[in-house]
Amino acid sequence: MSKPRQRFFINLHPAACMFYFVAVLIFTLLCMHPAFSALSLAGALSFAWRLKGGASIKKTLYFVGPMFLLIALANPLFNHRGVTMLFMAFDQWITLEATLYGLVSASQLAAVILWFVCYQEVMTSDKFLYLFGQVAPGSSLLITMTLRLIPAMQATSRSIRETHALMAEGEQRLFQKLGTALRNLSTLLTWSMENAVETADSMRARGYGLRRRSTFHLFHFDSRDARTLGLMAALTVVTLLGRCFGHGYMEFYPRLVGLTTGAPGFIMAGAFALLVFLPTILEAKEAVRWRCYGFAN
Amino acid sequence: MALLRFCQLSFAYPNAAVRALDKVDLELREGEYLVLAGPSGCGKTTLLRHAKPELVPAGAIEGQVLYREQPLAELDPFCAATRIGFVQQNPDNQIVTDYVWHELAFGLENLGLPTAAIRRRVAEMAAFFGMETWFRSKTTEISGGQKQLLNLASVLAMDPELLILDEPTAMLDPLAARALLDAVRRVNKELGVTVLLTEHRLEEVFPVADRVAMMDGGRLAALGRPQQIARLLTDKADRHQLYFGLPAAARIFSELGATGDMPLTVRDGRAVVKEMLGPVEKEEEMQPHRHLSGRRKDGKEGKNGKSDFSKEKPVLQADEVWFRYGEEGPDVLRGLDLRLYPGERLCLLGGNGAGKTTLLSLLAESKKPYRGKVRRAPGVKLCMLPQNPRSLFTFDSLGRELLESADGDQERADAMAERLGLTGLLDRHPYDLSGGEAQRAAVGKLLLRQANVLLLDEPTKGLDAYAKKNLAELLVRLSEEGTSLLTVTHDIEFAAEHMQRCAFIFDGLVISEGEPHQFFTGNRFYTTAAQLIAGEYFPQAITCGEVIAACQSCLSAAAPRPPLG
Fold it and tell me: From its phi and psi, is residue A93 left (phi > 0), alpha (psi between -120 and 50) or beta?
C-alpha cells in the first residue's frame, strides 16, 4: 500500500514540526473538556489518515478503538462520583459525570496516541537529531549509529536463522529450540562484534575524535516555514491565554461546571480547532494547489 | 615525485613466527594507479594498513613509510585523516550512520566543518558518482554495490590525495564490482587522485592499472607494467596462484607462444587471434568443431562429465511455480520449471532481481509458491551454503565447529577435515580462516549433517581465482560422489568451466538452459571472455583451455606460418 503523497507538513523545518507537536500535545492534556478532546482526537485522526493512508490507519484503530471503549466504559462502571444518576447497571448507579469523564479521558488518550503516530511519521530520526544534536554531538552520533545498527543486525540475524532452520532435523522440542536460539544469538554477537571492529576502523580512518564534531543537516528555514510557524505561534498564544483565564477546562465532579464559558471560550475553541486541523488544512490547500498547477500547465 | 614510499619495511604480528612483511621497498608516484596483487595471506592488507596512520596494526615494525618524503608516523593527524583515504573490503561494516547523505558528511563532520561547507562537498560527491536518486535513502536499504560506492564517495568527500582500497569488490557481484572499479578509475583519471588498490579480479584491473606490484610471502616479488607482470606470470612453468586470475586474452596469448604486446582486453585478444589464424575460413571454422566432437566420441563425455540427465529421477523439482512478495507485489517467478538431478552440478545465471535467490528460498521451502509445486525426492537432505559462511560458525575453533556438526563423533569430524583439506586448520578461529577455507569449512559442516543436496548462493563471491579453482575441484568431487549441487552465481567463467548444466533466469522464467557449451555458444554477449575472443573461429570453445587447444591444433594442422612478430 503506497502512502498518499502528503508532503507539505513533512517538508516543514524540523523546528516548526517540533513546535507544533509539543503545543498540540500540551493543550490536549491541559484542556480537560469534551469539546477540546473531541477536536484534538478528530484533528489527530484526520492528520494521521492523511499521512499514513486508510489501510495503515485502520490497523492503528484496531488497537486504539478497543482501548477507547475500555476506558470509556470502565470509568462509569467503577467510579460513582457525580450527582446526576442515569440508570442502574449491575446494581450500580451510573452517573452522567463519570460517563462524561470516562469519554473525555479516553479520547484524550486516543488523541495523544494518534498524535504520536503522526509524530513518528513526521519527525524522522534525522530531524530529531538535527534539533538536539547541536547540544550533544556525541550522543547524537550514538543514536544515529544505533538506528543503523538495529536493522543491520536484524538482517544478519535473519540470515543466521534461515541457514540453521534448514539444517535442523524435524520438529524440535522446546529445550532444543531454546538451545538453537541461544546458539544463534551467540553467532550474532560474535559476528556483530567482529563487524564493529571494522566500523571503528572506518571511523578512525575518517578522522573521528580529532576535533569537536559539527553536525551536518539538509534543512533550510525558509519564508514558508516562517509563515507557518508564525500562524502556529499565534494560535498557540490565543489558546494559551484562554486556558490561563480558565476557559477550556471543566469541573466534572460533583457536577459539571464550565461546559460553556461565553465568547472568550468560543474564541479559544476556534483557535484550538484551527490549530489541530492546521496540518489537514495545509495538506488540503497543497492538494488544491497541485490540481490548479495541473490545469495551468 | 614519490607520494608514498615504503623503505625496507618489515613487520611481524605479536607472537607470530613469520614476518608478515619482509623488507618491502615500494614507491608510489603521484597520480599513479598501482595494483597490489598476490595470493591471499601474502601480506597485501598488512602493507596497505601501514600506509594509513590510523590503521597501522600493532606489532614489531622495522623500516619506514614516507609520505612526501616525511615519515608517515609524524604526519599531523588532521592531515593523515584527510589526505589519505582508505576503503575496506566489507561494504556494510564501514558505514557508520543511518542516511546516505549523513554518511557522505560523516568525515567532514569529524573535521568540524560548518554546514555550508559540508553541503557543498557532499553535493559535489553525490553529483560526481550519480547518487542523486538514492541520496536520501537509508543506508540499510541500498544494494551492496551502492553501499561500496557510498563508502568510496564518503572517503573522497574528505578530498584525499591518496586513495587506498583493500579488495573493495570482494563482496560484490561482477556487475557491481565493475561499476565500482569504473568509479575508481574515474577518480584516478578525472580527479588525479593516486590509487593504491588490492584486487583479485585481475582481468578487471590489469587493463587500467599503470603498474602492478606482486607480493608473495610478505615480500615484493615483482613490480612493473601490467603487461610485464602478465608475461612474468605466464612464462613460469609452474603455475603461480595468480595466473588463474589473469585476463583470458593474456592467457591465450602466452599459451600460443605469441610475441609482441600482451593483450589484456577482449578487443586486443581478438585482434591477436585474428592475426594468427588469418581471416575466418569455412574450413577452419569446421576444424575445431571436428576437434571437439572427436574428443566426445572417445566416450569421455566432454570436459565436465555427462550432461544428459533426462532419464533419471530428479531429486528436486519446481513445477510451474509462481511467486510474489505480498498480494500487491509484482510476480517474481512466473511459472518457472526447474529440475535438479542426482549428482548434478546445475547453475542458475541471471541478472540482479531476476528471482534467483527467491527461487533458492522456494526450493529450500522457506517460502511457498502461491501456485505450482516444489517437490523433493524421498531421502533428500537439503542444505544451503549461505553467502557469508559466518552465519554457520558458533564456536571458537574450527575443530569444535566440525565436532558439533558430527554430533560429537570425533572420527567423522576428523575424516571430514581430512577430506576437505582442513586438517591443519582445526585450531584456528573460524573468523581467521581465509575466504576459501571458511567456505570449505562451511561445506564440511553441511556434509556432516548428511546433506546430499546443496544449494550454494554465490559461492565464488570474495574468492580469488586460485581459491575459486579449489572450490570448483571440491564441487566436482562432491558431485561425483553423488551430492547434487545447485549454484546461483553471476560468475560466467566459473559456470562455463565447472558446471554441467546452466539455466538462465530472466523475468521469472528459465529462458534458456543446457550444457555449458551449448548454452554459451548460443549467447552473443552473455558469454565467457574466451568465447568472445575466439568465438568466430571456434564456436564450440568456451573456456581458455579449449580455445588454446583449438588454436594449437589449428596452427599445427595448417602450413607452418611464420611466428607472429
Answer: beta
